Structure formats: C-alpha cells, structure tokens
Amino acid sequence: MTQRTARCSCGQLTLRTAEEPLRISICHCHACQRRTGSVFGVQARFRAQAVEIHGRSSRYMRPGESGGRLRFYFCPACGATVYYELDGLEDIVAVPIGAFADPAFPVPNISVYEECMHDWVTLPDGIEHQD
C-alpha cells in the first residue's frame, strides 16, 4: 500500500491517502489551463473516504465545461489548490497530481477536452481519448 501526501506550496494544507487512484486524467479545457497556468491540468481521483485532509482551506466554485459545478479547495496562505470536488461525484475527491510532487506518480490513463489541446502537446502511448 502506497502512502501519498499532497500539499500546498507552504505545507499548511495537506491531503493524505493510502489508496491507489481510481482514475488519472489529463484535462485540456480552457478552465483547467487558467487554473493551473499551464496548458492542461492533470488530476487523480480518489474515494472520499480514503483521504484525510488537514489544515485550513478556502473554496472557489465554478461551472465545469460539462455543466456541473466544481469546488476547488486551496490554501488561504499560499493559494495552491490541493483538492477539488465535482457535482454528482460526492464520493470522489480529485487531486492535482502536481500537489503530490512525486515524479514516480502513475501515468494518466485518459485525456479529455482535446479540442482545446495545444498542438505541440504529446500524450502517453495507450492513453484513452475522450472528447
């Protein structure tokens, strides 16, 4: 069993889990590009009951590209997003994998909103594509 800890930049807000992710996805939507400041977001989904969250967080809500709402939880001190929740998936917690800062983290298995993908982005072999 692998113990993983995600944390904000200053370490005040942390999330721990000992379970493997249910799904690891690359999202190319414009909202993820803006949220991350990069050309895509990469996140892992975990069962909510398998995570422990410690520290203070602030919340930002926005509509998702598919219409549902997302609730992002970030550190009020440094501003780094550590996890988020999606409407309709209340038993799931999504974590940006960069918050784990683990180069050995498993490879994403699905890529979504590829119509927004930058032309120079190359995806892992064997990844599932979903528009």
Give structural notes.
There is one protein chain. This protein is mainly beta and 131 residues long. Helix content is 5%, strand content 40%. It has one helix and eleven strands. Strands 9-4-3-10-11 form a five-stranded mixed sheet. Strands 1-2-5 form a three-stranded antiparallel sheet, with no helix packed on it. The longest helix is centred in the first third of the chain and has 7 residues, at 30-36. The radius of gyration is 14 Å and the shape is globular.
Shape: globular
Strand order of the largest sheet: 9-4-3-10-11
Mean pLDDT: 93
- CATH fold-level label: Metal Binding Protein, Guanine Nucleotide Exchange Factor, Chain A
CA radius of gyration is: 14 Å
The assigned structural class equals: mainly beta
Write the CATH architecture name.
Beta Complex
Poorly predicted sequence stretches spanning 5 or more consecutive residues = none
Main sheet summary: 5 strands, mixed
| Helix/strand order, N-terminal first | EEEHEEEEEEEE
Count of domains: 1
CATH class: Mainly Beta
For the terminal residues, how far apart are their CA atoms?
Answer: 33 Å
Which strand-content bin applies to the residues?
35-45%
Number of strands: 11
Count of alpha/pi helices: 1
Q: Considering DSSP H and I runs of 4 or more, what fraction of the residues is helical?
A: under 10%
